[in-house]
Amino acid sequence: MWQRLGPLRVKPAAEGCPDTVQLSLPVMDQAAEAKASSSWAQRAALGAMATVMLSGVAMAGPPAAGLIVTTGAAAASPAEAMQLAQRLAPVDPGIVKLLENDGVSFAVVRPGISFLETGVIPTRSLESYQAQLPAMQAQARAAQQAARPFDNGIRTLQQQRAIATQPEQIQSLDQRLGEMQRNKRQAILDVVGPEAIPYSIPSLAGLLRDKDGLHKLVAQQAMPKGTTVMAQLVGAKKPEHIREYTALVEAINGPRLEEARADSLARASQAQRELWLKDPGQIPIDIKGYTILVPDLAYVPDGAGGVARTSLLDASVVGAWANASGKTMAPFANNQGSSINGQYFSATRRILIQSSKVVAKSSQAHAHTPVHELGHAVEDAVQRHDPQFYGRWSARLEAAYRRATSSGTVSDYAASNSAEYVAEGVGHYYEDPNLLKSKDPQLFQLTQQLLERAAHLGQKSKS
Predict the structure, then answer these.
(1) Looking at residue 51, what DSSP letter applies?
(2) DSSP per-residue letters across 172-213
(3) Which end of the chain is more exposed for a tag (fewer CB within 10 A), N or C?
(4) Contact at 8 Å (CB) between 258 and 140?
(5) Which pTM value belongs to this model?
(6) Which helix (H) or strand (E) is 371 found in, with range?
(7) CA 157/CA 210 separation, integer angstroms
(8) Interval 152-173: pLDDT, tens
């Protein structure tokens, strides 16, 4: 899995590919192969002892140990460090050098540590959000202006839908209304920046684990959609966090939020008005009729009994790795645990590996986890260091990926998206090359080209 900073936007160049350096697969002699079992893990271990040929120069196994974290909360134990180094030993020294220069590191996650202490998720202070208020307020005004051309049409369709009786008419109105709402949302997304996002209960709730039962609340159509629930859906439990989140939403949206609240109060019963006026955070807001922006803020447990502030995307990462206390979990089994075996974080260039995935077990799914995640780091490095090559290469990759999704490839996970397609290619290239070549020869060639380029870039950095 790869957490990207943003979508890749590289325009393929028209020139042909530059010359590449030949990188040989790990090899072993017949005597060694005869002693090995059919296990790919044993084959990789023997391959690690082979000599790697780069640019005609014989070199010993690469110093992959330099990539492994041995201090801190996510440090590899001496045994884990040796096992990881052994699995990374077939990797060309040039690639290792490239990743070392980039600051890429492997950390081992075992159950029960604070996920935030792994150092892959940045946290923020309330003051940093408050400092961004002018920018978020400007984005809210731009969003409201972008939404205005759609508002009257949506309101008209909603009114027609309310009185429609014929199934065909209702279906047609629903389709038109849905299309107009999607177009409105896209128009808003085109003008807002990274500091604030258009509010949407399903999209926010989907970022968090179901540990608090919030998904069940979202399923209830009559659920109040006030700022209190907005705060709860992004992890705010303590009253002070609900208040600070509400204050930010009020400051960002200003009169527009007050208009939405006034509209709800005007349509409420006397009893509802009395209740809501005591706590304005409970006043439901018509989020389809009013464009409301919220900060890119979520509250996550820090693993030490406290709460930290982070982005919504990073909150989803914490939710995938950690439990309700912010402590890391073992990989998913028996309907519990983490859904992640390993992950590459491009912002910090750190690779996290579950401790149970350090040693290869051929009977397990995702058995190639360390070298799979290495594949994400290699692709990221080549994209940054040689965007011209990467543009041409990625165009061919996307074509191969589209073909593979219909005709089959080396694993089901490889068909998830093009990034996982590459990473699965790298994982199998090093640890099960024959299967890769037989199942998806195009991916084998593309993987080899990527690794050759990475090795060349690493060798250039040495000279």
Answers:
(1) P
(2) HHHHHHHHHHHHHHHHHHTT--SSEEE--HHHHHTTS-GGGS
(3) C
(4) no
(5) 0.76
(6) helix 369-385
(7) 34
(8) 898 899 899 999 999 999 999 9
